Amino acid sequence: MAKWTPRHEAPEPLEGPVVATVTGGTILWFVLFLVQLPFYGWFDDHGHTWWLWTCLAGGGLGLIGIWYVRKRDAAIKRAAAAPDTTATPSAP
């Protein structure tokens, strides 16, 4: 079996407003949960309560995601602002 190798280099990862994107998605999950909550009886009668709990889980995991991407963004900014310490000093 031959080993698969890519024919071209992978593109650079896209950077964008990651914190805003994850925050927006988290808000959307919570809004979906709150919109469905008044219809809990209907969902329970039809065996679809997992729809509500999926939205709540998405919102909860989104909170973890917001924490993670804020820490990541801060670390990227710190690394960009720090002086380059990889260069070796010249010997006297």
Protein described:
By secondary structure, this protein is mostly helical. Helices cover 62% and strands 0% of the residues. Helix 1 packs antiparallel against helix 3 (50-81). The longest helix has 32 residues, at 50-81. The radius of gyration is 23 Å and the shape is elongated. The model has no long low-confidence stretch (mean pLDDT 89).
Summarize the structure.
With 92 residues, the chain is mainly alpha-helical. Helix content is 62%, strand content 0%.
What are the main properties of this structure?
elongated; 92 residues; 3 helices; mainly alpha
Report strand %.
under 5%
Rounded mean pLDDT score: 89
Secondary-structure element pattern, one letter each:
HHH
SS class: mainly alpha
Structure annotation, total helices: 3
Residue windows where pLDDT falls under 50 for at least 5 positions: none
Shape: elongated
Number of β-strand runs = 0
